[in-house]
Amino acid sequence: MSDVVEMHLKLLFDLDNLIADTEEPSYKKMGFQLEEEASLVLVRKRNELLQQLPKEIAQIYEILKKRYRQAIAPVESEFCLGCFQKLPTELITRSQDITTCPNCGRILYWRKK
Amino acid sequence: MNLASLLSKDRVNLSLKPGKKDDVISDLVYSIRKGNDAALIVSTLLKREELGSTGIGKGIAIPHCRSLAVEKLEIAVGRTNKPINFNAIDKKPVSLIFLIIAPPQDPGNQYLITLGKIVQIAKEITKKNLIQKAKTPDEFIAMINEIEKSLTKRK
Ligand SMILES: [Zn+2]
């Protein structure tokens, strides 16, 4: 995955979580300003980001988002934080392509140290 | 989980450089993260601001988001000696900023709980006129601790 694609994917993921949080009842109660029209703009932005991704990655992302709400899972000490399964060693030396968890299928994300 | 324990001296900047809202948010983020991670967080925080300012009124703002760039809940505080325009809910300028960034995965919902707590604490700070009271980061954290305790007692 190129750096540009990776950044797009991360931006999309953060944005989707932002949109999801604004729909939480406990969040709404806190009293922060939330403009309805602006949230439509954010949805449009996330769709634009999605379209900028390579088609196959965009498709995987959308399928996973529907299934799990969060399509990406960070990896922490060799565990997928989506399903908490230990990842096989051969995955740890990751390839250039997008890597998904062999157990739950989420897109794996290794944080830069 | 206690809020003061999430704050450390080096995360409290009581002489944050005043400036444009976006720059101040960015400065605060870059004080705790660098490179692509910081860029991602700033981008997400500013998208949150597009929904409506996180300036909750009476001089305090609480920019917040979840981001893939952090692995645990992170808080940073910045205070400017000159109030800045934050397009706050009451249109008043802001001089105290609580920045909160949470990881995307958050099983115990620590993020929203902590955010709610900071909103409450911020309201106490404005009610008691404490924005400029602390002279050092240590004093600031002690003040937060005290307010947090008094709020817990009240419950
Ligand atoms: Zn998994």
Can you offer a commentary on this structure?
Chain A has 113 residues and is mainly α. Chain A has a single domain (3-110), classed as Helix Hairpins, CATH 1.10.287. Chain A has five helices and three strands, in the order ααααββαβ. In chain B, strand 2 and strand 3 (60-61) form a beta hairpin. Chain B has a single domain (3-154), classed as Mannitol-specific EII, Chain A. Chain B starts with a helix and ends with a helix. Chain B is built from five helices and six strands. By secondary structure, chain B is of the alpha/beta class. The chains are: A mainly alpha (113), B alpha/beta (155). Zinc ion (ZN) binds at residues 73, 80, 82-83, 85, 101, 103-104, 106 of chain A.
SSE map:
The complex is a heterodimer of chains A (113) and B (155).
Chain A lengths: L2 H20 L2 H4 L7 H17 L2 H14 L3 E5 L2 E2 L8 H4 L14 E4 L3
Helix pairs in contact in A: 1-3
Chain B lengths: L2 H4 L5 E2 L7 H10 L4 H16 L4 E3 L2 E2 L2 E3 L7 E11 L9 E9 L7 H18 L9 H18 L1
Parallel strand pairs in B: 1-5, 3-6, 4-6
Antiparallel strand pairs in B: 2-3, 5-6
Helix pairs in contact in B: 2-3, 4-5
Summarize the structure.
The complex is a heterodimer of chains A (113) and B (155). With 113 residues, chain A is mostly helical.
DSSP strand content of chain A: 5-15%
Percentage of residues in DSSP E strands of chain B: 15-25%
Total number of beta strands of chain A: 3
Order of helices and strands of chain B: HEHHEEEEEHH
Mean pLDDT over the full residue set of chain A: 90
How can the largest sheet of chain B be summarized?
6 strands, mixed
Mean pLDDT of chain B: 95
Helix content of chain A: 40-55%
> How many structural domains of chain A?
1
Strand adjacency order, main sheet of chain A: 2-1-3
Q: Features of this protein?
A:
heterodimer; A: 113 residues; mainly alpha; Helix Hairpins; three-stranded mixed sheet; 5 helices; 10% strand; B: 155 residues; alpha/beta; Mannitol-specific EII, Chain A; six-stranded mixed sheet; 6 strands; binds zinc ion
